[in-house]
Amino acid sequence: TEVYLYSQDTELQEYSKQNDIFYFKNNFKTEIYPKHFSQVIFDPNQGLNNEEADLFSLKHSYIQDAINEVKGNGIVSAFFVDDSRFQDKEGLLGFWQLKVENNYKYQRIYYIPIFIEVNVRYNRRVSRLFYNIENINIDKSTYLSDYIQIEELYQKALREAEKEAEDYFLEDKLNWQQKLEERLQQLKEYYREKEKAIKDIKIDNIRESRLKMVKEEWRVKEKELREKSKLFPKLTCEQLSYIKFR
């Protein structure tokens, strides 16, 4: 939002006596939106003590319209990052989302930053830098050379993201299967003890009926655990940015 407002010749301002609450002048679609936004927040928790606050989430109509507006300008955002450790390095930063699910309630989500230098080399160190963006100093001014081959950089980023995602998925799958195996052993022991108790019943038809019910319960539970062990990964590119360090 801050970078977009800068491109619109305006600026996000924080209230001097209200932390994390902002205001800004607006010159975008003023036939729909006000010329001045006040009490703007980005953290939903800020709204607990401020009923008049305007939460700018990705679902906010202003944000959605702004995103649609800039989509026509190219396939990547582009900006400078001030960090002397990587001075003059430039390339494509991709943020990839890996979602691992089964057909029940299991879900894990991972975000994978991938930085590919302009010479199409994967830079792992820079990539790791973007796991936490809170301390990254992003300059609002944009930068993108005309000769940059975005598609080539993107394809390299995709290949590296797939490798990273595979590592996450395999580790996740192993941990999940170990947990299910432990649960399976617990269930086996439970039904084994249950069968023992039922076999002590003296009345034949009741004993056989109960044993049949227990075996069916076990069959259903075992099948469910086998189904839960099947995990499905889905990798999507959430954002691309061209970055130059200085």
Number of helices: 5
Q: Quickly give the structural class.
A: alpha/beta
Main sheet strand line-up: 1-2-3-4
What's the order of the H and E elements?
Answer: HEEEEHEEEHHHE
Topology, number of strands: 8
Distance linking N and C termini: 23 Å
Regions with little confidence, pLDDT below 50 for 5+ residues: none
In round numbers, the mean pLDDT is 89
- Cα-based radius of gyration, to the nearest Å: 27 Å
Question: Main beta sheet: strand number and arrangement?
Answer: 4 strands, mixed
Shape: elongated
Helix content: 25-40%
How much beta, percentage-wise? 15-25%
Helix-strand layout with pairing:
Blueprint: H1 2-7, E1 13-14, E2 22-25, E3 36-41, E4 54-55, H2 61-71, E5 77-81, E6 90-101, E7 107-117, H3 124-129, H4 150-199, H5 204-228, E8 232-245
Parallel strand pairs: 3-4, 5-8
Antiparallel strand pairs: 1-2, 2-3, 6-7, 6-8
Question: Summarize this, please?
Answer:
With 246 residues, the chain is of the alpha/beta class.
